[in-house]
Fold General L-amino acid transport system substrate-binding protein.
Amino acid sequence: MYRTFCAGALMLAATTAMGGTLEDVKARGSLNCGVNTGLVGFASKDSNDNWHGFDVGLCRAVAAAILGDPSAVTFHETTAASRYRALNAGEIDVLVRNTTWSFSSDVDLKVDFAGINYYDGQAFMVPKALGLSSARELDGRKICVQAETTSAQNVDEYFNRYEMTYEAVPVDGTAEAQTLYLEGVCDVYSSDASQLAAIRATFAAPSDHVLLEDIISKEPLGPVVRHGDDDWTDLVRWVLNALIAAEELGVTSANIDELRAKGTSTPEINRLLGLDGLIGEMMRLDPEWAVRAIKAGGNYGELFARHIGTNTPIGLSRGLNLQWTEGGLLYSPPFR
């Protein structure tokens, strides 16, 4: 009796408190998602102005979960300098833009990270003609690096650690960095390894440029939401977790309808698919929210393979982004 009463009271209190961004998105009928200004493989527009990419896929999954329509997204281009301002000003509901979860970004900027969708690290790209094989050979070089980002700080700390010097060439975004790098204004371009791979894929001769093997930082990238709206944070976090868990559990965009129609002998899959439990109700969504999120673009592995995997021009291996069962760091808390 006591446990039943407490559970009911807690559910009522949670339902009463919920609202905020979720209700705004429902009323608006679309999700405002902040993305990169154009990073092939992650977030870029095609010739018809349609957005595609790994980060775009997460935006569409959130929209599908809430609104039932993966196309109900308005994409807002953000730069490293404008992204947090746009988020905190309410111009976007969620930021999905190669943004590093660090102490300062989390605590000082008063935002919340809803998880990690890509484990990255900072690297260096150089022209192959320079004949360099290690970052320890970069002493005295000119390095393009985005201003006001953790990338600039990482470069400075790395060079100080090894008592090397360099000349920083600050840039405002990937487009400017790419131009200055190709024009030879800087000898080196430093950023997240995934970003460098995406940029190199757009070059006329990608093989003329190499990514040095040295990784100089930890860059856990993830979706960001405004501080203080816990219910919205939970929703974005569990949409991401649904995509990760689906891959681990073998649920794909191709078999999900059959699994839901027949049911399974795995309780966690049944809960994920809305066949058992009240997971959707807890977030003020219907039971099939995760089904729609997964069908929007596939599970985590499908999204990765389609947009940035080894068979794409970006050519990224899973590495740390393998499932924890396969030696990687990718891990969803249980759906129970």
